[in-house]
Structures are given as C-alpha cells and as structure tokens.
Amino acid sequence: MKVKKLKILLKKIFKKYGLKDNHATISSNALINAELVGAYGHGISRLKMYCDRLSKKVINPEPKIKIKKISNSISYIDANNSIGFVSADIGIKTAIKNAKKTGIGLVAIKNSGHYGLSGYYAEQAVKKNLVVMIYTNAPPAVAPHGALKSLFGTNPICFGTPTGSKIPFILDTSISLINRGKIRVAARYNKKIPKGVALDKFGNPTTNAKKALKGVQLPIAGYRGSGLAWMVDILSGVLTGGNHAGKVKDPFEDFTGPQNIGHLFFTFKTNLFQKNYNQRIKENIRTIKKLPKSKGVKEILYPGQNKFKRFKENSKKEIKVPKIIKKDLKLLLK
Amino acid sequence: MKVKKLKILLKKIFKKYGLKDNHATISSNALINAELVGAYGHGISRLKMYCDRLSKKVINPEPKIKIKKISNSISYIDANNSIGFVSADIGIKTAIKNAKKTGIGLVAIKNSGHYGLSGYYAEQAVKKNLVVMIYTNAPPAVAPHGALKSLFGTNPICFGTPTGSKIPFILDTSISLINRGKIRVAARYNKKIPKGVALDKFGNPTTNAKKALKGVQLPIAGYRGSGLAWMVDILSGVLTGGNHAGKVKDPFEDFTGPQNIGHLFFTFKTNLFQKNYNQRIKENIRTIKKLPKSKGVKEILYPGQNKFKRFKENSKKEIKVPKIIKKDLKLLLK
Questions:
Q1: Buried/exposed code over A142-171 (b: 16+ C-beta within 10 A; e: otherwise)
Q2: Hey, which of A174, A199, B172, B194 would disulfide with B119, CB 3.0 to 4.6 Å?
Q3: Closest alpha carbon to B220 in B194, B185, B187, B251
Q4: Low-confidence ranges of chain B (pLDDT < 50)
C-alpha cells in the first residue's frame, strides 16, 4: 500500500475512534514512521490495540492536556491519558522550546501511554540542533537481577545528537536482549525468536514467541542491564508521577484502566561549552569509522545510520501490509 | 594500616608531590573511599601513578581552575589539568549549587584527568537530595561494534538518587564485559578468561588471556553497549572540549602529556514534579524487593547497596596495604 494511502486510512480510523484531526495526524505519522524505519513491532501491528483502548476509554480520545511551567527550563505535563503519541509530541516540542530559550530543557509527563519509538521524538530535537535524552518505562517484561518474576519494562535508553551531517546519531536501545514488539510480531506470525533472549513461564529457555510472552525476557548484561532498567523506571515513573515498579499495564492485555505511563525528556544545546561542536563530532565519527574492521563488516555504523537508511529505502517503496493487518484495517473501518 | 594513619600518609605524599593542602586532602579522601568500598583498582594502587604524573607535570600540581557561569543552571570548568579528584570535586559541588538554585544543574569540565569512581561524586549530590547523572570517558579498552581495535574507554554510566533511606541508589556501571585488570591477572597465572568477553587480534573469540590482551575487550550487549560507550564519549569528550575518539592517554603508560579528560555532571531536584518523591521511591524499592527470588538469592539489592555495606564494614577495620604498595609508599616518601 502506498504510504500516502495508508496514512489517509490510519487517520480515518483514528478519527473514527474519537481522536481529533490533529491528534489523528500525529498518531498516524508515528505509526507510518515506525513502518518506514522497519520497527514493525511499533507500527501498524499496534493499530487495533490503540483503537480497542480508545473505544474502551482507557485511552482518552479527548484529553485535556495540562502543561505546567516550573521554570523557563523545566515543564511538567499531565497528559490526561491521551494517546502516547500526542503527549510525547507535546513533550518533545516543549523540551525543544525550553532548551532553545535557556540552553537546557527538562520535561516530565505523567498520565501518558505507549508512544512508540523514543528515537522518533529524539530525531525531532536533533533536527533542531539539540542533544537529547529520553526515558520511558513499559509493562513488565524483564526480571530484576536476582528476581524470578518480570517487573521492569524493556525500558529504552535513548540518546540523540546532531552529527554535522544529515544522518542523526540516535541510540534507542531497550535494556532487554530482544524488543518486546519483535516477540509480539513473531507470535502473531507463528515465527521463532532467537535463542537465549527469553524464558518461558517455568524459567526454561524458549524460542517460542508465545511462550516467551508469558515468561520472562532477559536483560542485557545481567545486573548491569537490570540496574539500567531500574534507573529508567525511576526517571520515567517515580520522578514524573507515572506508574512504576511493574504497575504499567500491558496495553494489549489489560483494559481495566489507563497505562499512566510517565516519560522524561532532557534536551540541551550542542554549543553550550564548545562552539565547534559539529566539527568535533564529525571528527569523532570519522576517527571511529576509520578503525580496522571485523570480518564481514563493510562499515562501522553509528547508532541511527541503519534506521536512516531503511527509512530512505522504504520511503521509495509501498508499505507491505500483512494479511492479518489488512483484516484489522477492514474491521476497524467498518 | 588504620584509615586515619593512611590518610595522613597519603596527604603527606600528595603534598610532597606539589599539591596544595586542600587538594591533597581531596585526593587522599577519594583514594581512601575507593579502598573502603572495595574498589581497589581505584584506590592506593594508583597512588604511584598519580605521583609520577605530578612529578612529570602531566598532572598540573598548581592548576588555575576557571569556572565559567553560562547560566544559573549551567557552568563550564577548565580544570587546567588538575588532578581529576579536584576538578571532579569542584564539578559536583558546582552542579549541586546550580540545581539547588534553579532545580537543575549541568556542569561540563575539560582538561581534567582520571577522577576515580563516578559513584563517589554521585553520592555527594544524593546526600544533598538531588538526582544525578555523571559521564566520563577513559583510555581505549573496548572496540566499537564492528571494529577490530579498542577505542572506547570502559566509559562508566553513573546514576544516583536518594532512596528515602540512608543507603543511596548509585548505579555506576562500566560498559565493558570484563575489567582489563582481570585479564592481566589471568594472563600472569595462565588462566582462562570467560567465553565471549574478548577477541584475539584476528577478531576471533578467545578465552586465552594473553591473546585477549593483544586483541580487544567486548562491550556489554554487543552493539547496544557499543552505542552506550559512544554516547559517553560524546557527552564527556566531544561536548565538553575534552579528549575523545580514543585520544585519552593511558595514565599508567603514556606520560607524553596530560589526559585532557572531560566530565559531565547533571543534577536536579527530586521533587520538581512530585512532592512525595521519597515516599514514591521507597515504595518502588519495597515492591521490587518483595519479588520472588532466584535460587540462592537472599535479597534483591539495588545498585549501591553492596558498596554501602562494604564501606560500613571496611570502615571498622584497618586497610590492608599489600607489600607492593607499602614499597610504593616508602619510595614516594623518600
């Protein structure tokens, strides 16, 4: 399906499920972006879930979002359980505005929901020539180190910076060995997941995606990854007033209430300390790219390069809509 | 040796090598703290190195440290190649002052050196009831993902927060899978190193410590850890005006000039968004500690708990000074 056509369709569906025109646009754009960068677990495979939550009012289709100014640098947003895309859009725009004004921006959001890819919002700040860090938590998927039960989400750590070129440096890495969205997609298409990334509910290693969803995902790097996940839970949940300590509801499975997710956006100007930041980072990247390469490696890539390439390539093509999602679309349009 | 006696000795030595009284105190305290928390690689085993660098003037014993105020929140410090302990001490104190004033503090330092443990400075901010993040880079030890040569340092990521109890939450984690010192020890005793932590010079995985020393150490979590190390290199080096992209000199081996390390300190108040932060984080920790435990795990610990316990226990005892370091002390006092 052509990008343009799919976007119109998505917007129509979101509006049918109660979103205002501009909120439907923001949400459609985020889903399309996920498809184009190849993050299919965050793309149209989630559309039905969002619509289900909207129709059950556990996502508020008509939120009254309040932005509280704490200082010229710091803002606090109560998203009133809007769809996550909209609150994150306001959050990053506020963080950009604050940093442009004072050099530094810190924005916390509470009462939000799953917003897709952190990197998508990081890109917006990078395009405005800012360094950005974003934290959000997620439903239980990963066991804390020493525990036998999932509690942390895949809790991504996201960092972005301009590079002096058109391809931004966007690190957007979950602290689990595998993205939960990828397991969901695998489960949906009855595909296997890699070895060693998840356990079933009995604590045994599994490559069965459905069993993995009922079990535990493993954190990167043992106690180190567990500590990083805990940090993200504190920054995005404890600090902001969002849910934390395993209380974020699974958006696919738990419709008993809103997710109340918190997000934290931190932005600052690149040239606060060194006026020639772009030149410096160009030199940094150039030096690293010149290193001798491992077998089979054509080029040393910085985080975000692959995604940028996929985006460019996929933008020229039609978006493949799997049968199962075509069904969703039909059903949602009825 | 009693802590008090060792401290007097260290101070005497640092002063003999040209440090002012208060700089000698700060440096001695940092080394003693490393001993007490059991981070022996950052303790008195480094004393001789610091003195050697001082006597060769690649650490400036009489630095003229300049603090530039960018805004009430943001400061920029040129440490004039002071010993790292002193610049980091000024850095964290400035970041604390800024956050107390405006809610948020961002402090960059350039022309500094190795400062020991990030967690030591994080603790100072946490004691003032602030959340803190600290970044510093280090000499080459870890290969970027896809590269066959070390370039990133072990580049720690450090995060601290008050917990509502006397034991702070201090995550201070390097991004390498194994400490280089451990590989050196294994090589000396012809012992194997664990699988998957290092490559030989041809890029093949090895458990042979000698081959690993000639090859590269691997980052945690493959491309994810490599990305995190790169992030730290950018935040602490590119941004601040410090050395980056593998240019930080090994303090033990390279006396051709100062290290020019950069550090970044980011601090903010815990109650910017939620007034009952301490209550919230207490609840967070309590919930996680209550999870069912893995076999053999007595208690689920948060980052910093172990170190705190070691500090308390070791503070009651004398500090063990190995023979080889007693020799150093004698030599340095001559």
A1: bbbbbbebbbbbbbbbbbbbbbbeebbbbb
A2: B172
A3: B194
A4: none
Does domain B177-210 match CATH 3.40.50.1100?
A: no
CA distance B227 to A303: 6
pLDDT tens digits, one per residue of A127-145: 999 999 999 999 998 989 8
Contact between chains at B300 and A147 (C-beta distance less than 8 A) = yes
**Alpha-carbon span B300 to B311, nearest angstrom:** 19
What one-character DSSP code corresponds to residue B83?
-
Q: Chain A window 169-208: which residues touch B at a Cβ cutoff of 8 Å?
A: 169, 171, 173, 177
Nearest CA in chain B to A277: B239
Residues A55-101 pLDDT 10s = 999 999 999 999 999 999 999 999 999 999 999 999 999 999 999 99
Distance between CA atoms of residues B305 and B311, nearest Å: 10
Establish if B39 touches chain A: CB-CB under 8 angstroms.
no
CA distance B160 to B170: 4
User: Which amino acid would we find at residue A195?
Assistant: K
CATH architecture designation of domain B60-176+219-273: 2-Layer Sandwich (3.30)
- Domain edges within chain B: 60-176+219-273, 177-210
Distance (Å, rounded) from C-alpha B179 to C-alpha B194?
12
- Residue A38 φ/ψ region, left for φ over 0, alpha for ψ in the -120 to 50 degree band, beta for the rest: left
State phi, psi for B195 to the nearest 5 degrees.
Answer: -65, 145
Calpha distance A328→A45 (Å, rounded): 9
Is the torsion defined by CA of A272, A277, A281, A287 positive or negative? negative
Structure-token pair, residue B210: 């000698």
Put simply, the answer to whether A144 touches B288 (Cβ < 8 Å) is: yes
What is the distance of C-alpha A132 from the center of its chain? 14
Q: Are strands A74-78 and A104-112 parallel, antiparallel or unpaired?
A: parallel
**How far is CA A173 from each of CA A151, A167, A277, B39, rounded to the nearest angstrom?**
18, 18, 24, 29
CA distance linking residue A311 with residue B228, whole number of Å: 23
The helix/strand/coil state of A277 is helix
Name every residue whose Cβ is closer than 8 Å to that of residue B307 and which is 6 or more positions away in sequence: B37, B38, B39, B119, B170
Q: What is the pTM of this model?
A: 0.95
Asked if the interface predicted TM-score (ipTM) of this complex is over 0.90, the answer is yes
